[in-house]
Design brief:
It contains 6 helices and 13 strands. By secondary structure, it is an alpha/beta fold. It has a single domain, classed as 3-Layer(aba) Sandwich (Rossmann fold), CATH 3.40.50.2020. Strands 1, 2, 3, 11, 12 and 13 form a 6-stranded mixed β-sheet that branches.
Length: 208
């Protein structure tokens, strides 16, 4: 499977690279014809910092108290908070970076995290947003817990409607032919194409 993989480099910064594998993959909410591997951005200092700088530049004029980091993006979130706190409206702001639980697709805040969201301006950070379902759900959860969602940032994402601004480094058009399908309406399944791997925020597990 990995023999089919190739890299896609961001035109904004060559340190930001995603690895793309064509095939048939199952995610939590959909089936997709490409696996988007963001391990480098999540795990390597230089790539994580470069992505964070791009995100922070997009929200430089947005007051932020807390970054909610999902999909193992906490290193990027920490760099982003640092960048935001260096200039503009967030100068010297002690921005919190938290990774709360997601239970049955809903944001779950324990008491120790509640003070970082209630009455706070919250920016959401994710690795992938293929359908927008998770982003919209967490934005609703932030409001439920008394916070003010001010935006969302994702490394890779399709276009979708959301009540807050959404910033992407890579769009679906960055991977020509990329498609996402509901599991019950997947043309690859209908054609009898076996699923290559199951994909989540930790990576992918091949099916034999």
């Amino acid at each position: 499977m990995e023999k089919r993989a190739y890299d896609v480099v961001s035109p904004l910064n060559r340190e930001i690279v995603i690895r793309v594998i064509p095939g048939h993959f199952a995610t939590r909410h959909s089936h997709v014809n490409y696996c988007i591997d963001m391990t480098r951005i999540k795990s390597q200092l230089i790539s994580a910092r470069a992505a964070a700088k791009l995100f922070a530049g997009s929200f430089a004029g947005t007051p932020v108290d807390t970054v909610i980091s999902l999909d193992r993006m906490k290193m990027v979130g920490a760099f982003m908070a640092d960048e935001l706190s260096r200039s503009h409206v967030n100068f010297n702001q002690n921005i919190a970076v938290i990774t709360p639980e997601i239970d049955k697709d809903k944001l779950l805040l324990r008491d120790n995290f509640l003070g970082y969201v209630k009455g706070r301006r919250v920016l959401l950070l994710t690795a992938s947003a293929s359908t927008g379902k998770d982003v919209r759900s967490v934005v609703e959860g932030i409001r439920y817990y008394g916070g003010e969602p001010v935006g969302a940032a994702t490394v890779f994402g399709s276009e979708f409607e959301c009540s807050v601004p959404v910033v992407r480094i890579f769009g679906a058009d960055s991977v020509p032919g990329y498609s996402s399908f509901a599991p019950t309406d997947c043309p690859l399944c209908r054609d009898g194409v076996k699923v290559d791997a199951v994909v989540n925020s930790y990576g992918y597990s091949k099916l034999v």
